């Protein structure tokens, strides 16, 4: 445990981080590296993991590199795999070779399970910070010099900064900024994802199969034992009702008619529904992410949803840039937070807009949209067009790199 966490008085740089997910652990690690004494509190009674895949590329890859966790993540890299679009009975429609995905992602990219990213960050943090599970923020008071945090374990902690990195349903946001309903925008799509304990034999190893139908998508990925997973999303008029049904019943009702690897995945879900991520896809939209010495980070501040495909990268980037801003502004924490937010907002706005637009790719409104998508995927694999697409991707990456470095 890091020096200075316990004891009387408030160290010159002491921070309480709420949330032991990707955003919270990355923030704890970055601020420890910057010389802060760190306490992490997490509402869950123990560590949890989830089975969907996250891509770290661009800023997210760079942040992982600067945080020092890239070597460990490289050992858990899932790499690229062949994607097959299938019909409702599991029969093949279109094959997208792994080489095409590699060209799209580029060399500075890594794909891991979300749980593996969290584990890597946890292993780096647990030796340098105190982590309290089963603990939430109950009340917050602050003045110009410090913030006092009342916790559910009955303790009261004084710090120079409180970071709410406690996810979409943030308790810190509720206490300091107001009720969730003021900031959460429900996109009326459910998302379910979970690891597969048994390899889905109906899907060849090294392959991910994806069924895309009107208002729903089901994907089953077989990357071998301990590396396979399932992902589902579908449109619903009543997200609250789906949440009450729970993942096993809701996903069985929405996808029980499909073939291929889906029945196998749903049977595994029935055996262990608690291991699934299942929630309504929502974004968080706020005018400001900080108030005095309290700041929100990650999904608590800007949830972009899985449809953006960039949530983990933004969490790492936000944590990394927060550490830099605090170092640059010294003891003026509010000024550091304002500067940090100014830097991040343009990217967050862009990713949220892309996510809203991208919903139609995951849950197309009509069969005509699906036909057009299949046609486009077939077209871009033609030799001449494939080269044009790959060159366009490379030019876009180079432009993004120039903007990041300017």
Could you characterize the architecture of this molecule?
By secondary structure, this protein is of the alpha/beta class. Among the domains are: 14-83 and 109-184 and 284-360, FAD/NAD(P)-binding domain; 367-405. The chain is 42% helix and 25% strand. The strands form four sheets. It has a seven-stranded mixed sheet, with helices on both faces. The longest helix is centred in the last third of the chain and has 30 residues, at 333-362. The chain is globular and about 65 Å long. Residues 1-8 and 400-406 have low confidence and may be disordered.
Q: What is the radius of gyration computed over CA atoms, rounded to a whole number of angstroms?
A: 22 Å
Q: How many individual β-strands?
A: 18
The second-level CATH architecture of one domain is 3-Layer(bba) Sandwich
CATH topology of one domain: FAD/NAD(P)-binding domain
For the record, what is the CATH homologous superfamily label of one domain? FAD/NAD(P)-binding domain
Percent helix, as a range, is 40-55%
> Oligomeric form of this entry?
single chain
Q: Beta-strand percentage?
A: 15-25%
CATH class of one domain: Alpha Beta
Largest sheet: 7 strands, mixed
Mean pLDDT over the residues: 88
Ends distance: 38 Å
The outline comes out as globular
Strand order of the largest sheet: 5-4-13-14-15-12-16
Structural class: alpha/beta
> Total number of helical segments?
14
In the predicted model, the low-confidence regions spanning at least 5 consecutive residues are: 1-8, 400-406
């Amino acid at each position: 445990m890091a020096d200075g966490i316990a004891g009387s008085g408030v160290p010159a740089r002491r921070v309480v981080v709420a949330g032991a997910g990707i955003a919270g652990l990355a923030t704890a690690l970055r601020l420890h590296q910057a010389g802060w004494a760190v306490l992490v509190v997490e509402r869950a009674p123990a560590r949890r993991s989830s089975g969907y895949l996250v891509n770290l590329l661009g800023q997210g890859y760079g942040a992982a590199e600067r945080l020092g966790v890239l070597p460990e993540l490289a050992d858990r890299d899932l790499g690229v795999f062949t994607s097959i679009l299938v019909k409702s009975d599991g029969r093949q429609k279109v094959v997208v070779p792994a080489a095409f995905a590699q060209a799209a992602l580029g060399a500075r990219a890594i794909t891991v399970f979300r749980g593996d990213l969290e584990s890597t960050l946890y292993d780096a943090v647990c030796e340098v910070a105190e982590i309290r599970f089963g603990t939430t923020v109950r009340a917050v008071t602050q003045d110009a010099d410090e913030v006092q945090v009342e916790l559910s374990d009955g303790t009261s902690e004084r710090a120079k900064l409180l970071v709410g990195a406690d996810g979409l349903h943030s308790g810190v946001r509720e206490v300091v900024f107001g009720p969730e309903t003021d900031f959460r925008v429900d996109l009326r799509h459910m998302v379910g994802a979970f690891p597969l304990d048994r390899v889905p034999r109906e899907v060849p190893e090294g392959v991910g199969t994806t069924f895309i139908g009107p208002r729903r998508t089901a994907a089953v990925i077989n990357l071998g034992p301990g590396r396979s997973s399932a992902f589902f999303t579908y449109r619903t008029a009543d997200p609250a009702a789906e949440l009450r049904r729970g993942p096993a019943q809701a996903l069985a009702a929405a996808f029980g008619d499909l073939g291929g690897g889906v029945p196998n995945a749903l049977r595994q879900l029935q055996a262990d529904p608690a291991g699934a991520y299942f929630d309504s896809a929502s974004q968080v939209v706020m005018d400001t992410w900080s108030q005095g010495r309290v700041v929100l980070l990650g999904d608590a501040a800007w949830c972009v949803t899985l449809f953006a495909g960039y949530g983990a990268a933004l969490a790492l980037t936000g944590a990394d840039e927060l550490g830099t801003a605090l170092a640059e502004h010294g003891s003026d924490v509010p000024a550091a937070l304002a500067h940090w937010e100014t830097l991040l907002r343009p990217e967050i706005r862009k990713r949220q807009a892309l996510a809203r637009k991208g919903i139609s790719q995951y849950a197309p409104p009509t069969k005509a949209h699906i036909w057009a998508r299949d046609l486009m995927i077939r077209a871009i694999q033609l030799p001449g067009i494939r080269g044009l697409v790959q060159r366009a991707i490379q030019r876009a990456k180079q432009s993004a790199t120039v903007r990041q470095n300017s």
